[in-house]
Specification:
3-stranded antiparallel sheet; mainly alpha; 6 strands
């Protein structure tokens, strides 16, 4: 991908920043993009963290070494302590709308247009999202799914409308109920989650473990539910890997905590047997049957093999999101998204899905006789 866009408009920000920093970023576009993504991710996490009272105080504590403060931010521990389960400038004076604009503007300003378009990313302006939802007749009590949510424009518009009329007693869980989305771009997902944190910062409860309903997942290649088990196949440079997780675990309130602990144990270099023994003591695994435990064991084996082959534990986080997306409840009132992405199959040269139900979801105009939709399409 980096090679494909090396001669495009990435040269403009790369050359400008090369001059400013005294580094030749154009000599290694892949490294430049990696650094760029890391920078944007850190800014998004910082903005979200500084919206949380306790977390903001910890981050500003100059008595703590900067490395320690960044480690707490990157590990997700800071957000977990504030009551957010899955989010791996001083915003105290900003409104949620201005912070939302900051994330979208930050992402689109720094990520070159050629790269965004090569990834199939065509972002919807806030005003257009509001217009589409008005035309589609979306009401605050309705549910809403965006299978290609990007930085969360449609979902944030829905949340904004709910917040406008919500009583002070409304909880974050109540306000997010029925709003859900996914996207393939980790930076966009992070920006969307960070916006949710800022929107809901005054309603988060430490220790509550709120699951932000925006996931890093692929709407065209979802996990499969077979009986009571979710399974997913990933083709990697190390070969094809199969992962299985019981539905009871995926829908458990401590699911993300379970996978966070799994990642920690994998990165510590513990054996598959040691990891399994430790995890089966977690609350989320307390009621697993022998068969469900065996499914977890298979996934632990695959992750430890990847780690032994030199791949880090980030796969734990990726899989957690994909399985959580697979457990999103069906039957929402409205599915929204960008028609250009949906009709192109994602990115230039991408293969269109062959599953009839997914064809109906992604290409409703091309598949009028496909089976009934998991998520009914309206509002394009």
């Amino acid at each position: 991908m980096a090679a494909n866009i090396a001669g495009s408009d990435t040269e403009n920000p790369a050359s400008t920043q090369s001059e400013a920093h005294g580094e030749d970023y154009g000599a290694n576009v892949a490294a430049y993009l990696f650094a760029l993504n890391t920078f944007i991710a850190l800014v998004a996490k910082l903005v979200a963290a500084l919206a949380l009272k306790g977390a903001a105080e910890d981050l500003r504590d100059s008595a703590s070494p900067i490395r320690e403060r960044l480690q707490v931010l990157e590990s997700g521990e800071l957000f977990a302590n504030a009551g957010v389960a899955n989010i791996n400038f001083d915003v105290s004076k900003k409104s949620p709308d201005s912070t939302r604009d900051l994330f979208k503007g930050l992402y689109q300003s720094f990520v070159p247009r050629a790269l965004r378009h090569a990834l199939g990313e065509f972002y919807t302006p806030d005003w257009l999202a509001a217009h589409v939802m008005n035309e589609a007749g979306w009401q605050r009590r309705d549910s809403l799914t965006d299978p290609t949510c990007g930085t969360g424009t449609f979902l944030l518009e829905g949340l904004r409308r709910r917040l406008t009329h919500a009583p002070a007693s409304a909880t974050a869980e109540e306000l997010l109920a029925g709003l859900q989305g996914m996207d393939l771009n980790p930076l966009a997902v992070l920006a969307a989650r960070a916006s949710l944190v800022v929107f809901l910062s005054q309603r988060l409860k430490p220790g509550k473990g709120l699951r932000l309903p925006i996931y890093l997942a692929d709407a065209i290649n979802p996990v499969d539910l077979v009986g009571g088990v979710f399974e997913h196949h990933l083709q990697t440079e190390k070969g094809l890997f199969r992962f299985t997780v019981p539905k009871a675990l995926v829908t458990h309130a401590d699911f993300f905590a379970f996978f966070t602990r799994l990642r920690e144990l994998v990165e510590e270099g513990q054996s598959s047997a040691q990891i399994f023994s430790t995890l089966m003591k977690q609350d989320a695994a307390a009621r697993m049957s022998m068969g469900e435990q065996a499914q977890c064991q298979q996934t632990i084996d695959s992750l430890t093999r990847l780690h032994e082959a030199g791949w880090d534990g980030i796969w734990c986080s990726i899989l957690a999101d994909r399985f959580a997306a697979g457990a999103m409840p069906p039957g929402c009132m409205m599915t929204v998204g960008m028609r250009r992405w949906l009709q192109s199959g994602g990115a230039p040269g991408a293969t269109r899905p062959t599953n009839p139900a997914l064809l109906a979801l992604c290409f409703p105009l091309l598949s009028p006789h496909a089976p009934s939709l998991r998520w009914p399409i309206r509002g394009f």
